[in-house]
Amino acid sequence: MNSTPLLFLGILAGLAASWWGMVVAPKLQIGSAPTVVLKETGQHYPPTRPGVAQQGAEVYRSLGCNTCHSQIVRPEGYGHDLLRGWGPRRTVAQDYLRDQPIMLGSVRVGPDLANIATRMGSGDSNAQPAMVAYHLKHLYHPRTVMEGSVMPAYPFLFEKRRIVEGPSPDALKLEGAYAPEAGYEVVPKEEARVLVAYLLSLKSSASLVEAPVIPPPTNAPVKAANTASIATGGPSR
Amino acid sequence: MTSNVGMPSHTDSAGWAANEVDASFRPVALLLVTKAVLWLVAGSLLTLLASIKLHGPSMMSGSAWLTYGRVLPAGWTALVFGFAGQAGTLLGLWTLARAAGQRLQAPGLVLAGGVLWNLGVLAGVVGILAGFSTGREGLEMPSGALALLTVGAALTGVAGWKTYSARTTARVFPSAWFVLLGLIAFVWFASAALAMLGGADVRGSIQLLIQRWAGNGLQRIWLGGLALGLILFALPRAAQKPLASRELTLISFWSLVFFTPWAVTLPGDPLPRWVVSFGVAGHTLAAIGVLAAAINFWKTGEGAVARLFSTSAGRLVTGAAVAYVVAGTLQYLVSLRVVASVVRFTWLPVGIDWALVGGGAIWVVLSVLPEFVERATGRRLNPGLLNLNATLSLVGVGVVVLSLILAGVIQGMSLSNPGKAYMDTVKGSMHGVRLSSLGFLLFFLGQLPLLAAVVGGLTAVARDAVGAVKSWGLAPTGKGMGARS
Amino acid sequence: MKKPSRSHAGAVPAGDAATVPSISSYSAPTGFFVALAGLLYLGQAEGCYHHGLFSAGVYEPYADLRSIPSLGGPNPIDAGRDVYMAAGCVACHQPNGTGNPANGCPPLAKSDWVLAEGPSRLIRIVLHGAQGPITVNGQPWNGNMTPFGGSLSDEQIAHVLTFVRQSPEWGNAASEVTPEMVKAVREKESSRAAQWTAAELEKIPVTE
Question: Which of these, B250, B373, B380, C125, is most buried using a 10 Å CB contact count?
Fold first, then answer.
């Protein structure tokens, strides 16, 4: 330990070994994995994000949403992620293939968002406008749709403006204390729209070879108590 | 294991030599310590702000700059890189120079590195608040800021190695190894992260590995290594006893070098099973170094508890030793599948981060920093202010760590009950989180006296220097003297 | 200290007696080394128990590819495609079977090795891996393929090779590989551990 070169080389060897084992070796193995073709649909997975959703990912990153929200569903036995309805299967490396940067998160102050696009209500396109409206309202002021939420409000993603020629179709439907004064309306800015487009692109539910979706047994187990849909008064997650 | 005072044989000169060593840090201390303490004040204020926002999530929501997702990483960046890392490096160099029995070599490199470092932290904190976060947990500062830090650390590192190479002692006190490790580790992990995450073609899961590997390396090997080195230096001094064992120190050191960098993945990660298992094995083996450190601390402090608790520096370094061991133990426990399945993604890992950074690193830095400033500048700092800083820092971070761990356990238990609605699990954990705000408040308040003590002391030093220059006949003497009295 | 200290606070004492602490000769108790050995054991046991045969496609809760319920099925080509994706073949040989010159991984689509009359050499490559120079379709390649004999069952190897030899999307059309063929080769080469080289394989008749 009194030999300077030996100390130096020892440190380098130790740090380099972990780099090789935890970064380089996995990169060689899965770092160039391609998209897969899903058996059910014949589509490539994961699909490319629409441009607006990609812009929304930038807003998500910029506002630090991953400080409180994770995007990971763990396998059975890990905190009941599956039973809580956070996804039909665990997430695997394939799900994050297009994430740039990956925003996995490390704390769940808020719920997981790995499947936020499909989790609340059906994934069918008829529900889309209702979902968009729900998320916009939630971003504007989370407590308008969820009592007791600790999520910050994001009024700066919206614009409060005077109604000139009749109310805008995009205006948020706000009630009570949250509603703007008479003659004014709240409309989403571009950032809010693209952020919602990003949220509605988050789904890791397709059955993959390495993480198959296993249909629940017919005598369905107790469903997590927090399952809810828009129709029944707003999701409680 | 011979006794080692680390100085040339003629004992009479030990005091003289140390004095020379200490005095060689004067410019570094004058230029960089205040900056580090300002980052501590800024960082503790931002983390307090973030914590308060959890009580009233609609408060201060008018501006994107003050949203929780920006304020928290910005505050953490200021604390980790601006204060703990910067001051820890300076103190590390000081203990290194003392262990080497040599003046700080190339102080100009340390000054230049320090300037780049502070510019980098500034760019990082402002960048995150302005929305340019990288979105990578633990490495949120924009890559340009991290590049500045890396260059700054490399310059400082050269000075560190030059000092070590010019040593006059036959056997170097082992805290020096940890300082050298820290200097190399920062450059290694940060530059690898910069180089590998820069490419647009890195797949998501590989990015996850790179950022976790670099983040873990920076937290546990760079900062944790510096902290451990400083504790090994400061604990025996405060206890007025020898360090217990060179052997255990060696085990801690090589465990940190060879095992801790592997502690990257945790059970449940979206990675192939073998990658996860390698990370868990890394966590397991890293516990060896923590255990060795624990015994070393225990045997060093044994029988000297009263003495340790009799000074504020002693209380802080004792707290740091305990926090380092607690953090390391919890990090090991959280890597166990049965524990990870319950407490991962709760507040508990946040509590562990605070135990390691706020306790292990910041406490020991606060313990050693006043003496460093005093010896480098020859000016006593106000002991009352330092005492207040020590007490509030100990209580503040202590409350933060304990309340977040408690909140995490409660949150984990209720999340493991699938019949419990998600909203209720959040509500259940909020009591602990609210309690932590009290800790953040005390911690922030405690840094104001430190700022006053440091600014007061260093201003007096500068004034004396100006006065000395003037009294040498370069300027009329009356004015300068009069202004002070 | 050079300068006088005239205002508040006294001067710092000139140097402390011991510049760095001394070190005593305390030796760690036996219990520490027992704990150290225990942690070393736990660390390696973790790797031994959870290695998932180092496959890119094995995630918890599955221990290996054989235990994944979705792998396999009545149609050998479809089942083989799943194995191709999950076992990591695709990472080097690519989805379209063109291989990857960057890491010396030769093509499978329309490859003379793949489309040989019989699969005996292919089975050996999958079982034990292959390394070193190899000429494919007249082009020289030099790569390194890991063995899959431990991680894949006879049936899975038969499926993946059938997919590779018959893949309609690659335009390959050679004979099917059956689990019995794989089993026979596995037994015949049971003593082999090393990766194959092209020179060794070329001595083996393609139909054996």
Answer: B373
Distance from CA of B285 to the nearest CA of C (A): 6
Structure-model confidence comparison of residues B399 and A207, the more confident one: B399
Give contacts of C53 with chain B, Cβ < 8 Å: 274
CA–CA gap between residue B363 and residue B369 (Å, rounded): 10
Residue in chain B lying closest to A61 (CA): B135
Chain C, 86-105: which have a CB under 8 Å from a chain A CB? 86, 88, 90-91, 94-95, 100, 103
Could you read off the pLDDT of B63-113 as tens digits, one per residue? 899 999 999 999 999 999 999 999 999 999 999 999 998 999 999 999 999
Distance from CA of A62 to the nearest CA of C (A): 32
CB-based contact A194:A59 (threshold 8 Å): yes
Chain C residues 53-82 with CB within 8 Å of chain B: 53-60, 62-63
| B460–C1 C-beta distance less than 8 A | no
Residue that is written with structure tokens 């916009």 in the block:
A136
Compute the distance between CA of residue B439 and CA of residue B459 in angstroms, rounded to an integer: 30
| C-alpha to C-alpha distance for A47 and A117, rounded to whole angstroms | 14
What is the residue extent of each domain of chain A?
36-212
- Fold of domain A36-212: Cytochrome Bc1 Complex; Chain D, domain 2 (1.10.760)
Q: What is the mean pLDDT of residues B35-40?
A: 98
- Predicted ipTM of the assembly: 0.91
Helix (H, G, I), strand (E, B), or coil: what is residue A69?
A: coil
Least Cα separation, residue A26 to chain C (angstroms): 9
- Residue B214 · residue B263 · CB < 8 Å: no
Cβ separation B175–C5 shorter than 8 A: no
- Domains (range + CATH), chain C: 71-202 (1.10.760.10)
Q: Give A-chain residues touching C71 at CB under 8 angstroms.
A: 209
Report the largest interatomic distance among the alpha carbons of chain C, rounded to a whole angstrom.
100
Name the residue with higher pLDDT: B304 or A120: B304
Inter-chain CB proximity B278 and C47 less than 8 Å: yes
Rounded Cα distance between B23 and B161, Å, is 19
User: How would residue C103 be classed by pLDDT, with cut points 50, 70 and 90?
Assistant: confident
Q: Which A-chain residues 161-190 have CB contacts (< 8 A) with chain B?
A: none
B474 class by beta-carbon count within 10 Å (0-12 exposed, 13-18 middle, 19+ buried): exposed
**Closest residue in chain B to residue C45, using alpha carbons only:** B281
Amino acid B159 reads: A
Rounded Cα–Cα distance for residues A151 and A155 (Å): 12
Q: Chains meeting C at 3+ CB pairs closer than 8 A?
A: A, B
State the DSSP string of B100-136: HTSPPS-HHHHHHHHHHHHHHHHHHHHHHHTT-----
What is d(CA B106, CA A147) in angstroms, rounded to the nearest whole number?
Answer: 60
* Domain boundaries, given as residue ranges, for chain B: 17-173, 343-485
Kindly report the three-state secondary structure assignment for every residue of A8-47: HHHHHHHHHHHHHHHHHHHHHHHCCCCCEECCCCCCEECC
